[in-house]
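dumping this here before i forget
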Amino acid sequence: MNRLARLCFLVLSTTAAFAQNWPSFRGPEASGVADGAGPPVSWDAVKSVNVRWKTAIPGLAHSSPVVWGDRIFVTSAVSSDPKSEFGPRMEMAMEPAKDASVHSWRVYCLDKNTGKILWERTAYTGVPKTKRHVTGSHASATPVTDGRVVVTFFASEGLYAYDFNGKLLWKQDLGLINPGFLYDPDFEWGAASSPILHKNLVIVQCDKQKDSFIAAYDLKDGRRVWLTPRDEVCTWSTPTVHQGKSRAELIAAGRNIRAYDPTTGEQLWKLSGSAEYSIATPIVAN
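structure:
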């Protein structure tokens, strides 16, 4: 269904929190913590209680906004079929949505203070290469930014990098990425793992029906720096980089939790015994 989602910006009680960057899924270090924030404990989007502005965004998306300075970046997948299947009350459904219409995968940049759309770009247009869950979307990965470049990941439809003015810097085709039900490959549910940044690298975790991998691409030109195959089944988890005293570790969840060298892709260690379906993002804390 071609819907209009509402992006609402909540009024915060501290200027420090209002100015803080939120560059990736779950924020800095994937902790989900905004230091110094004092958000309202209640709000009502319909009645505009504790809401600064609302902006209509078309399509379906489970991706989160990212914030840098006065810019907000969001993504969406817009179906050309006004009756495309979406069932938010069908959480236990296993069959994918019946939605083979032409889509456009879009990136939006908004002014954080007013909600005005500063620019909109269509990264890809076509029939989705994989299916999605009836409660899901084809835009579930959250963008990531370093304050100069914003990277969006649309799974089978590609990896894209834009500058803050909306200029396409590069794009990469990562092949078919089709996570879903482990015991029936026809039950594709759509990808959700978000890209992350480490120094000059864009890192993506692509666990799918077969030939899973984790890979790094140069943030400047999109050149692939390394790719490491993963003996893993489908996951929807976003990896995390932890900077320890002696080295940095790229930690990725799955049936086995693994750590890699983020600069080379070499596996450093493995911990078995995780869940059959890995969705949660690993975090590190003392």
